[in-house]
């Protein structure tokens, strides 16, 4: 365990909270100190739920440690049952309360409550949030579905959807999209769990012929238990992207005894665009992908096979699925990054020099600092990635969403580059009058401004004077004169302190902004390695030729 500014996953009890918050009729009594109640904000502020998660905290304080915290836990259990009247009670301890060794499961059994109690053993210092969610769902399925053999043979075209949870990345919309596709292909979806399910629904899981695991990180353990205990096979092909969705539907139809080739599909724009002439702009773009295993592996497949990108990096923070990600990375000729250290991920992005980053909320922040286009494809995410609109990642409509989310940042980068190219044009410069006003005279370089007015600085002017004041600043400080052509400008870069001439800086601005940072870094490393000082236009093109070999 290490202290970190960012973390990809919380402790296991947060995963248990996700399962409880996903279901109806389930309440979670969490033995925890006062400070551990922060997790409520994940649901109310980030996911924007209209109610608090169904969790009761014992919220003991430091002064309570001199007495019996176990009595406080039992009181919290009785009060929760009396107040909320749940169908089932989950009990467990947070990472802090685990140190007290109060045994929430044993304490709850002594109360002889009139509802089922499922104790959770969540080793907070060995496991993390996603494992906690998977373990909680597995325990609930075992407790509710039982081990009794199934009565009769279910219809072959009946299935369950397993894995969607609260705080899952676009899980709500994915379920809606996939359930509609399955219905259109003649499948009968019996239960969707844990999202929206009750304990009674989990008891009905064996009444379907097979299971569909949408998110293996959550439902793989439970699906394998159902397969061993009730003989229920399962499908775990991820329906992300056009190709992935078609493969998924063929596999599901075959398992349901239907014609695997008669897939009922829906129109998508991604396939059309991939065949269009405009898509050649995207061919070979370098993309770095990082996230949970399901979304990272699927994103790499879509990026390479459906959009023509070159996958230059692939990784996950989920060590339980490291083997799957390594296998996928090997298929792209690269080595997988398995790490939950965001600084290590940032270093890998810098080394890979991508033109697009697909990742979590953390990779979005990293890409913004590096001025690289980015899109979020996986949890953990922030509030903007729980949109009010319908925005799935799975299915054919999900492929359209991927197209918009991934391609638009690159296309907008091209647009900004074109605007930058023409910013000094006589017709399009900042002081030019609108072209449709024929009688207006354009404000050219020699135009005299009215007394008392000041020219606005250019929007792309990042070269500030040494005092930190720009032209027209409210302090009234007069701006310094612009450096003469060929004179060096000090530009602080980490780790190299390079000197650029004004001509070289102007030439660098002609490079598209979304690769400008990469061009600057390459040139500075080239100059440092060859002892060149200052960096001139010639140095810029020598570095370009060197790195193009």
From TrEMBL:
Residues 12-410 form the Nitrogenase/oxidoreductase component domain. Binds 1 [4Fe-4S] cluster per heterodimer. The cluster is bound at the heterodimer interface by residues from both subunits. Substrate binds at residues 413-414. Its EC number is 1.3.7.7. The keyword rRNA-binding does not apply. The keyword Oxidoreductase applies. InterPro entries: ChlB/BchB/BchZ, LI-POR_suB-like_C, Nase/OxRdtase_comp1, P-CP_red_C, Protochl_reductB, Protochlorophyllide_Rdtase. It holds the Pfam family PCP_red. Coiled coil: none annotated. It catalyses: chlorophyllide a + oxidized 2[4Fe-4S]-[ferredoxin] + 2 ADP + 2 phosphate = protochlorophyllide a + reduced 2[4Fe-4S]-[ferredoxin] + 2 ATP + 2 H2O. Its cofactor is [4Fe-4S] cluster. The active site is at residue 278. Keywords: 4Fe-4S, ATP-binding, Bacteriochlorophyll biosynthesis, Chlorophyll biosynthesis, Iron, Iron-sulfur, Metal-binding, Nucleotide-binding, Oxidoreductase, Photosynthesis. Pathway: Porphyrin-containing compound metabolism; bacteriochlorophyll biosynthesis (light-independent). [4Fe-4S] cluster binds at residue 36. Belongs to the ChlB/BchB/BchZ family. PANTHER family: LIGHT-INDEPENDENT PROTOCHLOROPHYLLIDE REDUCTASE SUBUNIT B. Protochlorophyllide reductase is composed of three subunits; BchL, BchN and BchB. Forms a heterotetramer of two BchB and two BchN subunits. This is Light-independent protochlorophyllide reductase subunit B. It comes from Pannonibacter tanglangensis. The gene is bchB.
